[in-house]
Every structure is written in C-alpha cells, then in structure tokens.
Here is the input.
Amino acid sequence: MKIYDTIIIGGGLAGLTAAIHLAKNNHRVLIFEKQKYPHHKVCGEYVSNEIIPYLINLGVFLPDAININTLQFSTVQGRTVTTKLPLGGVGISRYALDFLLYNRAQELKVSFVFEGVNSVYFSEDIFHIKTESGLKFISKTTIGAFGKRSNMDKHLQRNFMKKKSSWLGVKAHFELPDFPKHLVALHNFKGGYGGLSTTETGAINFCYLVNYKRFKKLKDINDFNLKIVSENPFLGSFLKDAKPIFDQPLSIAQISFEKKETVENHMLMCGDSAGLIHPLCGNGMAMAIHSAKIASELLVLYLNSSEPNRKLLEVTYKKRWNKAFKYRLWIGRKLQWLLLNDNLSNIAMKIVAKSPKLLRLLIKQTHGKPITC
Here is the structure.
C-alpha cells in the first residue's frame, strides 16, 4: 500500500493551500473532499490582502478578483460609519477561489479522493485512514481541514461538539448593478449580522450569521429576510432592489465559536477546524490560508528531517498557531458580544463615528501583517 507523506481531510481553503505548499516541496499529498469542484460554500468571500504575497509565491494568482478598500458598518437602526481598510482585500467567491487552488494542486500532482472519511487511527507513528466506502489509506502525517463542523469532529470526540451551538449561517448571491465594488458592508439586524461584498463575476455575496432561536420563530429564510433582516434599512433596501441569482440560499447550522484544540489525535488542525473567527471580523478566509502555511512549513521540516520529532512538531504548531490567531479570536468574540447588544452597539457607533482612527485600529486587531514565503 502506498504511503503518503501527508493526507489532508478536507479540500477547502486550508486543505488546498497546505497541499500546494507541501507538493511544491516535493511531498506526496492526498486530499479527501466530499464534493467535486467547483462548488459554492457558506462564506463571506472577502479575502484580506495579507495573504496575497503568499498565494503568489505558491503560484496562485487572483486575476479577476475585486479590489475592496472601504468598510461600511451599520447598527440595527441604520446608524452608519464608513472607513478605509488598513490593508484592504479582494472579493472572490469560494466557487472561483477553491477551483483555482484545486487546479494548482492538480498541476503539482496532488492526489484527490472525492469521498468522506469515516475513521482515522494512529498507530506506530503511522495514520490509518478509512473512507465511508471502506477504502483504506496510510500516511506519515495528517492535516484536519474539514471545516466548521463535521462528522470527523464526532469521530474524534472533540469537546466543542458536546455543546449545542445556536448559530446558523446563510449565503446567497444577488445582482445589483449600482452596488459599490470597492465596499465591504457589515450590517446588524436583531439576532445577527450580515456582510455584503462584490465577487469576481460582479455578483453581490450576502452572507449572514443569525442566532437560531430567533430564526426558528419564522424558519423560512425568505420570510426571515423580509420580517427581521430587512428591519435594518440598508439590508431592507438591498433585499428589495437586488435580484437573487441562486435558486435557493445555502445554509449551515450548528456553527460553533467554542475553543478548539489545534492538534487532535496527532493531526494538525487547520482553518475552521482549528478555530473560527466571527464573520463580522471579515478575515476567516485569510486565517485559513495562513494556518495552512504555518502547518505546511513545519511539516516540510518534519518530513525532511533525518530524526523527525512528532512531539516537537505538535508543540511548535500549537505555539505558532496561538501566536498568530489566539488574540484575534478573542477580539472577535468581544466585538460580537458588543455589536449584538443594541444599546452598547449604538454607544460604540457614536464613539467610532467621531474617531475613524479608532475603528481602523479595531480592524487591525483582527487582521495580520502581510505574509510571504
């Protein structure tokens, strides 16, 4: 049986990026992904410029991406503040970006199996992986990049799965010709908040997060949009004037922002599998790619070593991941708590409206510096 250097469970941003990095360094990589590319995912579809130099180094270019340099934020009542983004970013759909990464991975001879993983067993320094159909594979190292919530989380008996999460994510694309392409807008509504930004096709991505207890009172997404989301005047105007492109919105339930372990059963966790930043911080895609870079760099050293030390690999990954993201996640949780409180968010808006520098400072706390090779 062929032994892979690294098997990656999950072919999203983190999984694909890690595969490209490892394959560029001449390692044998296999990715498990349930769906064939390209496909849409529930995601904000705004990527911070901090990761663009790294993507270029991997041979991944975003020629059709939309340059975004301005943030607009509004409260439930419609009080707004607008500011320039310190680094800026690009608007590109997961449909396009994942497919771009997939094609680059194929160029580098990364192997793919389009099937879910049923179990992972670690024994005598080797990972034994079994798919849902019973296929078996082995590898020296494994990356867990299976997203926000997966059956693999249950299989690994991860602690956060023991707690019910009340968050629901909803995404759809719309046509609205006069929407400013340079803008990413974050708008509050009762029980949640949503982001608007332009993608590479000119479609406007509308992705929002809502407390399920509030949503279930109406249950139907269109009804909820009409009666709750539209109470925010900006979102109400958008939903009234914009033309839906999707036949039906995409949704994902039980989104958890609980603390997650960065190493499980000797697997390095990347992207949302390691920790999920609140969408209002607008930086989840960049964090997923950055986490893949950290893991891949360490795995290259480990795999090339004449005396590989797995314990050192795992301890070092935890330290580097925490240094890069722990504070950002903490800030994200605090911002969500603040902005979902109507009274506090209005007070906060009055303060930042008088001091755009303060808002830019808050944005910087959830974004990193540009990363290179």
Notes: DSSP finds eleven helices and 17 strands in the chain. The mean pLDDT is 88. The domain at 3-164+255-365 is CATH 3.50.50.60 (FAD/NAD(P)-binding domain). The chain has one domain: 3-164+255-365.
